[in-house]
Amino acid sequence: MKKYFLFFALVALFVSCDKLDELTKFEMDYDQTVVIPSSTGVDLPFDVFTPETETNSSAEFEVNDTRKDLIEEIVLKKLIMTVEVPDGEDFSFLESIIIYMSADDLPEIKIAWNEEVSATAGEQLELVTTAEDLKEYIKKDSYTLRLKTITDEFLSSDYEINIASTFFVDAKILGL
After folding, report:
1. Rounded to an integer, what distance in angstroms lies between the CA atom of residue 172 and that of residue 116?
2. Domain residues for 150?
3. What pLDDT digit, counting tens, does each position of 45-64 carry?
């Protein structure tokens, strides 16, 4: 009888630890806007920078009952770009795009890309994302994105692009 009790106690412990572990996993969303200027040429690479984005990570962590020092990993799960202006336009003007992230005292890192944008791309473009751990970047007060783009069409007007990114955060259970 004691063996059964011990067995069920251990099972209950593992199940409750798994449930606690799930409570320390959450997502953080960021939206930024960048302007791709009307072009002076085609097939020439050029860089576009976003303004610094405040992470507000301490507040996000607090809302999710954790702290910066308890974060195990932060991974970019999704990055979707949407053409906001001009109305009715799409991403067919892009040949390729690579997005880099940088933060104070950290090296720039490639986080998302599409090296062959389809000529039939719509108003939204979901990029391939890195599996790298980005916790040191998100734990900073702010970060900047750099878009390295190549266009295959002449742009007669500026394109205002929304960049929506979703980061998956995994924190330690009760600091263990």
Report:
1. 38
2. 1-171
3. 778 888 888 888 888 888 88
Quote the DSSP letter at residue 2. Answer: H
Q: Would 176 be classed as within a structural domain?
A: no
> Domain for residue 41, yes or no?
yes
Query: What pLDDT sits at residue 40?
Result: 56
> How many domains are there within the chain?
1
CA atoms of 90 and 99, how far apart (whole Å): 18
CB atoms within 10 A of CB 28: 19
The helix (run of H) or strand (run of E) holding residue 8 is: helix 2-23
- Would you say 142 and 54 are in contact if contact means Cβ atoms under 8 Å apart? yes
CATH number reported for the structural domain that contains residue 87 in this entry: 2.60.120
Q: What is the pLDDT of residues 123-150, one digit of tens each?
A: 999 999 999 999 999 999 999 999 999 8
What residues have CB less than 8 Å from 62, skipping those under 6 apart? none
Q: Is residue 51 part of a domain?
A: yes
Residue 50 lies in a domain: yes
Which residue has 């991974």 as its token pair? Answer: 75
Mean pLDDT of 149-159: 89
pLDDT of amino acid 10: 47
Taking alpha carbons only, the member of 26, 33, 113 closest to residue 75 is 26
Q: What is the DSSP letter of 148?
A: E
